[in-house]
Amino acid sequence: MNDVRSLSDRVLLEQCERFGREALVWRNRFRALLPEVERRKLYLKKGWPSIYVFGKILAGLSEEQVSESLNIAGRLEDKPVLKRLLESGEVSVNKITKIMSIATVENESELAEKVQIMSTRTLETFSRDVRNEAEYGLHVKKAECKTLFAQEANAFGFNEEVVERLKELNQKGIDINEALTAFLDHREEELTRAKEEVATSLPEESTRYIPVRVRNIITQEYGTKCAKTGCTRPSQELHHRRRWALDPSHDPNLIAPLCKEHHQIAHSIDVKVQEMRRR
Ligand SMILES: [Zn+2]
Ligand SMILES: [Zn+2]
């Protein structure tokens, strides 16, 4: 048994990764069998006190993991694509659980692709985005918007000077909303102009490195937040909206700062996602 000691670090790590991955696949496959074991009450016939003991002794599963496995089976009955994916062991119960609230007979194939590409955390974000978008379209009533607006206005944390200056304008009979709208429009125009200027000054041959002046203008436009509407996480990665390989340009109009999860979501529509994830 000395030969493990003689392995290089690289080979040792490779083996750990491979065996770990395979262990997960086999465990997933075991979990996918549990609903049928339950249906037949196979564990009772063979003298096990419960399906939980069965799962624990045979595969080291916690009670929660057994319950999850049983739960998901009923919800997948009308979704053959997701069901087959689960049974293959390639995808965990946990991941499928994350998208169950948005899964339908119509979109299950599309979701099956996402489940294979995205991490569990990204799936959670993706699923929340889809639910929020649906809910926003359907339920947001005007009254709710108004309360929300009042809360938001307070949250800006205007300092004394700003409040004084706004008050002064107001007293002069100048419409604050108009003044602020004008300011916001002006800011947007300035940014558009500056972005054009940067875009036209970029060298034709470009490397993957994003020039500082492009980064600066993006920070001016987006601040430190992820560019996805409604996402409040800080941006972590700069994303090229067009595939870099097809259009190697750092035009700031085509770059968006994204959080890790939304970056993965943006790439999930791309078949080459595995390769792009490293960028
Ligand atoms: Zn990207
Ligand atoms: Zn985000």
Write up what this structure looks like.
It contains 14 helices and two strands, in the order H-H-H-H-H-H-H-H-H-H-H-H-E-E-H-H. With 279 residues, the protein is mostly helical. It folds into three domains: 2-138, no CATH class; 140-164, no CATH class; 201-276. It has a two-stranded antiparallel sheet. Helix 11 packs antiparallel against helix 12 (212-222). The mean pLDDT is 87.
Which properties best describe this structure?
binds zinc ion, 3% strand, mainly alpha, two-stranded antiparallel sheet, 279 residues, elongated
Helix content: 55-70%
Regarding quaternary structure, how should these chains be classified?
single chain
- Kindly state the mean pLDDT as a whole number? 87
Ions, cofactors, ligands: which are bound?
Answer: zinc ion
Number of helical regions: 14
Structural Rg: 26 Å
Q: Kindly, what is the distance between the CA atoms of the first and last residues, rounded to a whole number of angstroms?
A: 41 Å
Number of domains in the coordinates?
3
What is the helix/strand order? HHHHHHHHHHHHEEHH
In which order are the strands of the major sheet placed?
1-2
Q: Regions with pLDDT < 50 over 5+ consecutive residues? A: none
Sheet having the most strands:
2 strands, antiparallel
Record field, number of beta strands: 2
Beta-strand content bin: under 5%
Give a quick precis of the structure.
The protein is mainly α.
Write the layout of secondary structure elements.
Layout: H1 9-40, H2 42-45, H3 51-59, H4 63-75, H5 80-88, H6 93-99, H7 108-117, H8 120-139, H9 142-155, H10 160-171, H11 176-201, H12 212-222, E1 237-240, E2 255-258, H13 260-268, H14 273-276
Bound molecules: zinc ion (2 copies).
One zinc ion binds at residues 226, 228, 231, 233, 258-259, 261-262.
